[in-house]
Design brief:
The complex is a heterodimer of chains A (92) and B (604).
Chain A: H1 9-32, H2 49-72, E1 73-74
Chain B: H1 2-5, H2 12-20, H3 36-54, E1 60-65, E2 68-74, H4 77-96, H5 104-124, H6 129-148, H7 159-192, H8 217-229, H9 237-242, H10 250-256, H11 258-269, H12 276-293, H13 297-318, H14 321-352, H15 368-382, H16 388-402, H17 406-432, H18 446-464, H19 467-470, H20 484-507, E3 517-518, H21 522-566, H22 578-603
Antiparallel strand pairs in B: 1-2
Classes of the chains: A mainly alpha (92), B mainly alpha (604).
């Protein structure tokens, strides 16, 4: 059984709007304050670094997982756990 | 009396009281649904916690036994972090399970849960390895009851699969204890030979830092014993195998104790062991791929749990004050939000009978409170600002950056996006939203909502008032989680990652939920090893029977030969005349004489 559920477009659009706002906010904060000077790495100061890293990670994880599924997915009864077992502890 | 009480290790009231729960009547109060055993369990946890709070920091109780100094009770700041949160976790889990106990199996489950939590608490306050070993094994044999216990209406479980999963779990857990015991005994032998630089070799304190492979064999054995229960990579699969097989209330208990007890043990004995950093990074990274494709939501949570343990291992491995504080704080926060997520999924199982994503969806309509609490757990584990995960996980990530561990830092960011994927989005989305499964179950019972509400409040309170947990930590905290930089970058990381979800759904590339299982390391001992042993057995058997055949035919041939020569009809079996015997004797004597003569010629 497979299904392709979706997200209501209203919620998705709101999410994109918040992302855009965060991107701008990051650039503004970096330009107007010294808070980004405390960053440990130079790349942290690139505009939208965290956002793009998060987006790319998410996409990579999903695609890698799809590949992994080809390797490791098996039917639910693969281990044959539904075979009856013998022995005195049957009633546990 | 007060003095005597102060000798009692915390956890003991729960452990002993847990046994006594078995004597209670199997009665359920009709209006509230509360059982006698359930109510008594809550009381036990409260009593135990009050006892802990009455013990001053610095309490140490020692006992001389068999020539060794045992320390059954040691209260210090590190132990107290776990002591507090273990009691909170036991309290909410007991509230969640208030309805369990009106049947023999249920009452047994309540007893086991209390004994299990009590043993884990005892382990945290153990000051020596012998006491630790005792509790280490007790947590194993009490917790397996939660996997074996019967539960009506849960279609994800059946007697046989649970029995087998429990057996595998028990075997691995007990193995961890045996390895620990071997390590401790070797350490005592080393101490006897003067090779241990400690006043009391049994003392449960720092054992190693830096390169673990340079430590003694005893120390390494103890390290890997802890590693089994901490679900190190490749040693992890007992967790994802067993936890989804527990009862819906049992997995709430299981999620809190065993693995975090192991993290505590690592923090106590192996702070600053470099190997913990790559191991921890692997633990944060690999389970997230599985969590995307797994159908059983409790198994998703188990992979997620494994990933969270990775963050703590990295913190312990870095070993700086900030990192160790981070590991302890993260354990504290994690226990609460992971319990909350297992409670939410447990409530779904209680009402719907399954936690399979393929059979869920749309439950928010009739279970709005459970949905809301689940979302609180999801945003907390994803570490959104104003939640507990934000103020604790960031300490570990910052500690990695401060030590200039760039790859670790990036890997932890990557893993944070992964957490958002499976625990932040997948769990609430597929359980409560997604496509409408058409099911309209009732909202969870009041005591489950109470437990979830309390836990959710805790997750938010820690996020809004981080001082609540920072004040408990073993070292002074001068970390400030709420800076403009941190809030904005964290929100960017999480929300941009979240924005990928509708895009992938829209493109139709997000992997659909499927009724299937996924092979993991357990394949090695559930399929490969039995197959190899079966093959080896068949080979030995075949070889043996061929050897038997060969022996049989050789024996038959020998017998036929003997028959032919000395049998009744054989050459030597015949009746011989005296003359024939005389001739043959003369021939043999002649041959002997000739040989003797030639021999004497040769030796001259």
């Amino acid at each position: 059984m497979s299904n392709h559920p979706t997200i209501p477009p209203r919620i998705a659009r709101g999410l994109y709007a918040v992302c855009a706002a965060l991107f701008v906010l990051g650039v503004v904060i970096a330009a107007t304050t010294h808070t980004f000077d405390h960053a440990h790495y130079g790349f942290e100061r690139w505009p939208g670094f965290y956002g793009l890293f998060g987006f790319a990670s998410f996409v990579f994880i999903v695609f890698a997982a799809k590949l992994l599924r080809r390797l490791v997915m098996r039917p639910e009864d693969y281990y044959g756990d539904d075979r009856p077992i013998d022995g005195p502890m049957k009633d546990l | 009396m007060h003095d005597l009480l102060s000798l009692l290790p915390p956890g003991t009231p729960m452990f002993v009281g847990g046994l006594l729960l078995l004597l209670l009547p199997r009665r359920r109060h009709a209006a509230s649904g509360v059982t006698a055993a359930g109510a008594a369990a809550v009381v036990l946890v409260v009593l135990d916690y009050l006892h802990l709070l009455s013990l001053p920091v610095g309490t140490v109780v020692t006992v001389e036994a068999l020539g060794y100094t045992l320390t059954p009770l040691r209260v210090d700041r590190l132990a107290l972090v776990w002591g507090h949160v273990f009691h909170l976790a036991a309290l909410v889990a007991a509230l969640f399970a208030l309805h369990v106990g009106d049947r023999w199996g249920g009452r047994r489950q309540q007893a086991a849960a209390m004994m299990y939590a009590g043993a884990a608490i005892g382990a945290v306050f153990a000051g020596d390895f012998a006491t630790l070993f005792l509790y280490w094994e007790l947590t194993a044999i009490t917790s397996v009851v939660l996997i074996w216990a019967p539960e009506e209406g849960n279609r994800d479980r059946d007697e046989r699969t649970c029995f087998r999963a429990g057996m595998r779990y028990l075997l691995i857990q007990v193995t961890s204890g045996v390895v620990l015991l071997a390590g401790v005994l070797l350490r005592l032998a080393d101490a006897g030979a003067g090779r241990v630089d400690a006043e009391n070799p049994l003392s449960f304190g720092a054992l190693a830092s830096g390169d673990i492979f340079e430590a003694s064999l005893a120390t390494q054995l103890i390290f890997w014993a802890f590693g089994i229960k901490a679900a190190f990579p490749l040693l992890h699969n007992w967790l994802q195998d067993a936890y989804p097989k527990a009862t819906s209330t049992g997995s709430v208990f299981l999620s809190a104790f065993t693995t975090k007890m192991a993290i505590y043990a690592l923090a106590r004995a192996f702070a600053g062991v470099d190997l913990l950093i790559p191991l921890g990074v692997a633990m944060t990274a690999f389970p997230i791929f599985y969590a995307v494709i797994v159908n059983d939501l409790r198994r998703v949570l188990s992979y997620s749990l494994n990933n969270q343990l990775g963050f703590m291992c990295v913190g312990v491995g870095i070993g700086t004050e900030l990192a160790l504080n981070g590991a302890a704080a993260h354990a504290f926060a994690h226990i609460l939000y992971k319990s909350l997520l297992f409670q939410a999924v447990g409530a779904v199982i209680y009402r719907v009978g399954t936690a399979k994503a393929t059979e869920l969806g749309g439950l928010y309509r009739t279970m709005p409170w459970t949905t809301a609490f689940c979302i609180v757990g999801s945003v907390s584990i994803s570490a959104f600002p104003l939640t507990s995960g934000f103020v604790t996980k960031s300490m570990i990530v910052s500690a990695a950056a401060e030590e200039h561990l760039t790859w670790v830092f990036l890997a932890l960011l990557f893993a944070s996006a992964g957490v958002l994927e499976h625990s932040g989005i997948k769990i609430p989305y597929f359980a409560f939203f997604a496509h409408d499964s058409g099911q309209r179950p009732r909202e969870a019972p009041w005591h489950m909502l109470l437990a979830m509400g309390l836990t959710a409040t805790g997750c938010l309170a820690l996020g809004i008032f981080p001082g609540l947990v920072y004040g408990l930590l073993p070292f002074e905290v001068d970390y400030v989680p709420y800076t403009a930089l941190h809030v904005v970058t964290q929100l960017q990381l999480l929300l941009f990652a979240a924005a990928a979800f509708p895009v992938l759904l829209w493109l139709g590339v997000y992997p659909a939920e499927k009724r299937a299982i996924n092979l993991d390391v357990d394949w090695l001992y559930r399929r490969a090893a039995p197959a190899v042993f079966a093959r080896l057995g068949a080979m030995v058997q075949a070889g043996w029977s061929r050897l038997g055949d060969a022996w049989g035919s050789a024996a038959r041939r020998l017998r036929a030969g003997l028959d032919a020569s000395v049998g009744p009809q054989g050459f030597f079996g015949r009746t011989w005349t005296v003359g024939q015997i005389t001739i043959w004797s003369a021939v043999m004597l002649t041959v002997y004489l000739v040989v003797e003569f030639l021999w004497s010629l040769a030796s001259v």
